[in-house]
Every structure is written in structure tokens, then in C-alpha cells.
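Run Aldehyde dehydrogenase domain-containing protein through structure prediction, thanks.
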Amino acid sequence: MAQIATVRALNIDIKVPTGLFINNEFVPSLDSSEVIQVINPFNEEVLCSVVAASPKDVDAAVAAARKAFQTTWGKNVTGWERARLMNKLADLIERDAQELAVLESLNNGKPVRVARDFDIGDSIQCLRYYAGWADKIAGQTLEVDNKTKFAFTKVEAIGVAGQIIPWNYPINMWSWKVAPALAVGCTIVMKPSELTPLTALKLSELVKEAGFPAGVVNTIPSLGAVGGAALASHNDVDKVAFTGSTITGRKIMAAAAASNLKKVSLELGGKSPHLIFESCDLDQAANWAALGICYNSGKWISCQDCTAGSRVYVQDSIHDKFVELLVSKVKELYIGDGLDEKSAGGPVVNKTQYDRVWGYIESGKSEGAKVVLGGTKRSTKGFFVDPTIFTDVRPDMKIVKEEIFGPVLAVGRFKTEEEAIALANDTTYGLGAGLHSNDANQCMRVSSALEAGTVWINQYNLLSNNVPFGGKKQSGIGRELGSYALEEYTSVKAVHWNFGEKLDWPF
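Sure, done. The structure for Aldehyde dehydrogenase domain-containing protein is below.
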């Protein structure tokens, strides 16, 4: 089951699988004729349609994953073999990086060069990083009584993992979820976003080509209220991992609790603060603040990013100079067709997101914030939102309190370090935070005081596959990346071994 996506601008055709990927085959739905129309956000045209999974299809995918876990994966294959297959998959993604990047750009809107050089490059590295862990999953030997008994622990794959990924990083989030799960021996039922299913389906082709046994990775495009809900409440799914909104995260957690109390990890929303102190390198701080609000779906527009530094607070003494510098930096970015190699940014993902972001921009204006850049709609086709920067903001404004998921920045002021910390922590979220200062003592004090799972000092929004990532407060539960992500897909079994104690009876 496939369709051909013709890319006229590049004079190429891309074969796109459009069925459900279950047991290493692309198949139609068992009981539904529903399809998902996949839209190109640059020109608002339909790219193709893919099969939309029903609850019965989710059952079939979970059954395939369970069978593979019990027979050809899980405890039935060595860490060496898991690593070999993961590295083979990384090789294939590297081989097809350009085609995957074009497909990502068509479906998501981000520039090809960003998808290829950043998202896909990082995903290849992520797979190889976790392939390195596959034969190093180790337990402990524990002293109980040296004369008669000891205990040891085994770290075991938790089983079938349901994984639900968002539309802002379709390939990157796929790798973040898939890599640690495969490394420890879990099998997977993947639900990509209904807005951006194409690269997950294309990657499924490569999973089969790499030689993974049938049922190890299954891909079920579907509406969140269907596929996501079915995975979260499924009694034969052992763990669910979700990246997306806090509202949906709550529903998934409730469904997991109401069904079989499956393990849950959630990477949710954010309203991340970015503090600019007077001792900083002003030019560098402006560069990083621009990246913080303009990263994704381009290099760097349109800030469809959970860790977006969407609240910048600047010390009074440098506020005006910093804002002037920041505006000049953001103006340098070219935003256009993602297929154009010179594009620094593309459109937001769809009409719903476009309307949502513009609603926040209008809210900022009506609540009295001052627009110093942007704030005007384009007259051309496509879901473009040019970077918009507000100053003169108050803590009670919607643009300061709520996650926007678009290139809208609120810039505020502070006088003292204590005031900066209070403003930064005045949020229900706790995903990321940043600060710029050349005072080492201040860097230590402030980074310790910020309530966030990740804090950047004199940089922003860069992650490494060997460093854990996750949130505090309403930004989530659990960690991705680094060795900590392995814990999300494993359980620890304790084994008590008695080799010398005799039990008298009756005791």
C-alpha cells in the first residue's frame, strides 16, 4: 500500500507507504475505511492519504508486538544482536537521509537542510548511542549472608511499549522513543501524529529492511482520540510513552491507571524562562535568545518546541540595548519554502495551529503588550507566522502564562537576581530554563534555584543524546535520552538465592 508524492520543485518522486505497518507488512484496516488526509503546510495542498487505525487495528498491532516479545525479541535475542540491527537501521537512515528530509519538509514544513542535518543527523546518533547500550544492561549482586545466601537483580525489558509522538519533531521523537526501547528488548506499537505520519511509515520500511523480526516495531497512524486512547487503556500494553500537551498527558495517565496500571512516561508542555543578566556577553545572549524562540520548524523558525524560551527576562540596565539587538538578529532570518536550501524557517504545521498562534498574538496586543517585531499576517498562501516579539509584558498576560507553540516571544524586565528567579519560576511548567551571565557564582546560584528539568547556561535549546531530558511540575514524568531513558523501558527483578540456610519446621 503506497502512493507517490511528486516533488515538482526538486523534480523527484517519493514512494510513500500509506497502510498500517503490522508484523512487517503494510496492511489495510481490519474494519474501517477511514483515512487521514496529509497536508503540506507550505501550500495547504493534500500530499496523500493514509489508513487510519481503528481500535481493532490497535489490538492487532499489540498482539503482534506481544508475540514478537515472547518469541523473537525480548529475552530471545542477545544484546549483541539488538545492537547489530539498530546500527544497521542507523546506516539505512543515513543512506536515505535526503529523501527522509524532503518528506519531513513536505509534511511538517521545516526546511530540508534542518531536517537532514539536525533532526535526522541527531536521530542516527541516537540509534547508535543506544545500540552501544544494548549489551551493557546489567544488574547487581547483593550481599545478604555470605555463609548461606545472596541476592542478585536482573534488569528486564518491560514488554510491549505503546509510543505516541508529536508533529513537531516526527523523526527525532521517533528515534528518542524507539532507540532505548529496542536496546533493552521491548517491542513497540508506534502512533505518530495524525498530522505528520509519513516519515514514521517510511522509517517502518527501513525497520523491515534492516532485518528486525516481524512485530518488533509496528506503526499505526490514527487520530489521537482513537489510537492514542486505545494504547493508553490497553490491558496488554506494559508501558506508554507520550510527548505532547499537558491536557492529553493527564488523559493518558488516567487511562493507564484505570486499565492495568502500566508504566507511564510523559514529556509535556513548557513555558520556559530565559534570564539575561547584565554581566553577560550581550551579542551571544541575543543569538541564543533568538534561537530559543525561533527554533523548529526551521533553523530556526517557528518555535514549535516544548522548550521554547518564550519568556525572556532582561536586567533593567541592559534591557533596551538587548531588545534592539535581539530584533536585529531575528530580522536576519529568511522564512520560506522548506525545499529551498537557503530557508531558515518554514510554516507552522496546520491551519489549527496557525489560528491558535494568531489568537495569542491578538491577545498580546489587546492586553497591552507592545509589538516590536512582527504581528502582521502574510497575504500569501501557507501557514506562515513570522516571528513576533512583545515587550512591556505583565505576568498575568496570556502570552506570558500559556504555551503558544509558535514564534511569539514575551520580553520582560527585572532589577535583582531574586526578582529574576521569582519571575522564572512563576509557572505551572518546568521543562527548560536558561540564563546568561559571566558571573560564575551567579550561574551556580541561579541554575540551582530554577525549577526546570533542564537548565542551559550561556546557551539554549541544545541537547545531547547522552544527557537526560525531561520536566518538573506539569511538564512531565520520567526522562528521555541518556542512560536514564533505559529505566523507562525496564523493570528490576530481585532474585534471592539460598544455598545454605535450612528451615526448621514448625518454625
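The longest strand covers residues 149-157.
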